């Protein structure tokens, strides 16, 4: 892009401001945030409590954690084919590209997949674990049969998973430095992007086809009338997806390409973009609902962090990169964040989920899990690689949070020392869990910035 056209972007933004009635200072803020206050549906918490807790207590610590080596490197396969439709087109926009990390830049401890500080000890631990898993198997079985038994065991272990996880041992899987590939506006939009979200909402949100989602047909009131009448679990599922969608849109609005010249690129908040997605008038009342769903998502993921504390508190658990002193510091910071999450006064009560008839509850839980797993597969259909990266990471993070919430009994039984066979998290799940919550936390923090900007607009 020519230098002059880059400089024109902020000017053009002024002329592209939405056509809404101009009023007194603060009118623009009210159109986006008038309903984003007070108590949240299906929760005892309120927006103001979350804002104060996140923006001034948790967000700064979480940012520091995510800059550490353990949490900045994420292994992902961006070459998996779309499993649902023929998808050969990829985004040609340069900001859609992802820069993989050369293997020699990734800390040895992360590449080795070890949680120990001794390679020999780690190897021995793996041998012991495999021996225990095969302990009940007849030793006279062929090696091929024994491997099949291990494969079945791994399948059983994944039965509580809410995501279709990448095979990190695939030759197509590469480490990505998340700090060098930040989530921001890439220019990826139009029919391809619409198809992704349409597939998620129309085919995976427990919704009958005759009930159109908001803005799809201008009959949003019918959708919410339907939503109010369904069980709390299906209502929560929709709000989680809507909250995730809102969070992604906030990131794109907050890190927008404002200037692109030969000398520099400038990224920053684009108020026009934010208004187009969340202004009450422009979205026919839908925008503020999306923002409230973001807060619902925040509460769900925060609750998961508070529940998983015993897993990370074990003395034997290490966030291993190979740098012992730094790893100790990072674990201490991690525990500080988890204990802070646990101290939050108005947690979401997940006991309202899957209550009642046990058989029906188990069936609904499995449907819930499979629907979300399907959404994680849809991420492989995203044409923009950077969007695909962050989409896969955030769905895996939310899926891990759901896995934690629905594994409470197993977490309570984790021994203080020794292996935890009932409940496990892989490094991929750990990195995704905290980075996904970091995105939600950032969104809540960015809302304060947009609120302040809009407050001064007429």
How would you portray this structure in words?
The protein is mainly alpha-helical and 458 residues long. Helix content is 56%, strand content 4%. The chain is built from 18 helices and 4 strands. It has a two-stranded antiparallel sheet with strand order 1-2. The chain has a two-stranded antiparallel sheet with strand order 3-4. A hairpin with a 4-residue loop joins strand 3 and strand 4. Helix 3 (47-66) packs across helix 18. The chain is globular and about 60 Å long. The two termini are 32 Å apart. The model is unreliable at 1-21, 116-141 and 148-158 (pLDDT under 50).
Radius of gyration: 23 Å
Helical residue percent band: 55-70%
By DSSP, the count of extended strands is 4
DSSP summary: helix tally: 18
User: Average pLDDT, to the nearest integer?
Assistant: 81
Task: Please give the alpha-carbon distance between the first and last residues.
Answer: 32 Å
The SS-based structural class is: mainly alpha
Which features does this protein show?
mainly alpha, 56% helix, 4% strand, 458 residues, two-stranded antiparallel ribbon, single chain
Short description:
With 458 residues, this protein is mainly alpha-helical. It has helices spanning 3-15, 27-33, 47-66, 69-72, 108-112, 119-133, 143-157, 191-204, 220-228, 232-254, 271-278, 286-307, 309-313, 324-342, 358-378, 385-405, 408-412, 427-455, and strands at 73-76, 174-177, 256-260, 265-268.
């Amino acid at each position: 892009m020519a230098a002059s056209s880059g400089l024109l972007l902020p000017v053009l933004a002024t002329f592209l401001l939405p056509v809404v009635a101009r009023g007194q200072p603060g009118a623009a803020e009210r159109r986006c945030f008038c309903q984003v206050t007070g108590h949240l549906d299906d929760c005892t918490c309120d927006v103001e409590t979350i804002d104060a807790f996140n923006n001034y207590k948790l967000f700064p610590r979480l940012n520091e954690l995510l800059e550490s080596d353990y949490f900045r490197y994420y292994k992902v396969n961006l070459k998996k084919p779309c499993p649902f439709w023929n998808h050969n087109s990829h985004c040609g926009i340069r900001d859609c590209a992802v820069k993989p990390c050369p293997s020699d830049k990734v800390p040895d401890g992360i590449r080795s997949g070890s949680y120990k500080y001794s390679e020999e000890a780690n190897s021995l631990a793996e041998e012991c674990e495999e021996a225990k898993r095969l302990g009940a198997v007849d030793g006279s079985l062929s090696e091929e049969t024994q491997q099949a038994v291990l494969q079945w065991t791994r399948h059983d272990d994944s039965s509580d998973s809410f995501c279709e996880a990448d095979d990190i041992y695939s030759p197509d899987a590469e480490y990505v430095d998340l700090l060098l590939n930040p989530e921001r506006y890439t220019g990826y939009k139009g029919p391809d992007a619409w198809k992704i979200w349409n597939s998620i909402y129309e085919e995976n949100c427990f919704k009958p086809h005759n009930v159109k989602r908001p803005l799809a047909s201008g009959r949003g009131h019918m959708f919410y009338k339907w939503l109010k009448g369904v069980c709390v679990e299906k209502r929560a599922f929709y709000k989680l997806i809507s909250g995730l969608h809102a969070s992604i849109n906030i990131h794109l609005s907050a890190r927008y390409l404002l200037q692109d010249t030969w000398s520099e690129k400038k990224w920053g908040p684009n108020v026009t973009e934010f208004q187009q997605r969340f202004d009450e008038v422009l979205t026919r009342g839908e925008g503020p609902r999306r923002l409230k769903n973001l807060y619902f998502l925040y509460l769900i993921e925060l609750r998961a962090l508070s529940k998983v504390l015993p897993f990370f508190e074990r003395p034997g658990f290490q966030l291993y990169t190979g740098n012992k002193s730094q790893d100790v510091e990072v674990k201490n910071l991690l525990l500080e964040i988890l204990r802070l999450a646990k101290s939050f006064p108005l947690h979401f009560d997940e006991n309202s989920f899957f209550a009642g008839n046990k058989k029906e509850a188990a069936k609904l839980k499995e449907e819930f899990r499979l629907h979300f797993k399907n959404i994680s597969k849809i991420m492989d259909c995203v044409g923009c690689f950077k969007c695909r990266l962050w989409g896969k990471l955030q769905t895996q993070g939310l899926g891990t949070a759901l896995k934690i919430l629905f594994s409470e009994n197993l977490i309570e039984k984790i021994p203080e020392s020794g292996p935890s066979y009932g409940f496990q998290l892989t490094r991929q799940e750990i990195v995704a869990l905290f980075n996904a919550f970091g995105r939600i936390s950032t969104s809540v923090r960015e809302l304060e910035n947009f609120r302040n900007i809009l407050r001064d607009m007429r």
